[in-house]
Amino acid sequence: MSIDPILVKSSFAAVEPHGTEVTAWFYQHLFEQHPDVRVLFAEHLDDQQDRLFAALGALVEHLEDTDTLVGILTDLGRRHAGYGALPEHFPAVGVSLLATLRHFAGDAWSPQAEAAWAAVYGVVADTMGRALVAAGPAGADG
Length: 142
Ligand code: HEM
Known about the structure:
Radius of gyration: 15 Å
Shape: globular
Helix content: 55-70%
Number of domains: 1
Organism: Kitasatospora arboriphila
Bound molecules: protoporphyrin IX containing FE
CATH topology: Globin-like
Order of helices and strands: HHHHHH
Number of strands: 0
CATH architecture: Orthogonal Bundle
Strand content: under 5%
Number of helices: 6
Largest sheet: none
CATH superfamily: Globins
Family: Belongs to the globin family.
CATH class: Mainly Alpha
Domain Globin: 1-133
Protein name: Globin domain-containing protein
Pfam families: Globin
């Protein structure tokens, strides 16, 4: 795996100041492309929006600390079993996430940044997906 942490961090830093606009754009993109996943989310996305980007920030922060990263992703994946998320949803979320970062990163975006993020998302989806499947449909409490 060849993830350039500097590219990931600098592009995320360019996106962060756009605040809640970023997550709103992300969910609009996701639900337009995949209306079927809309029912999994609560009616009001406001809290969830902040949590999703806070989680991304934590992942970016711990990019070079594999143990912490895997711990965060395993817990997150386990909880997602309880939300009805499935491994097959991850590619759709990945496409919308990359589209969102590309949209807001401005000059900090490049083919190299895109490749680095694709690699990060591959690790995220793989680790979360495995924890999710291991937890089963009952989720973390099951
Ligand atoms: C990069 C991958 C993802 C990250 C970082 C992420 C992050 C989060 C976070 C932080 C929460 C808040 C609750 C918690 O911390 O447990 C959450 C909730 C949720 N996520 Fe994700 N998620 C990801 C992928 C997905 C995927 C692929 C799906 C499937 C469609 C999904 C569906 C949901 C749902 C349904 C909720 C609950 C929302 C609600 O309370 O209404 N997530 N996610």
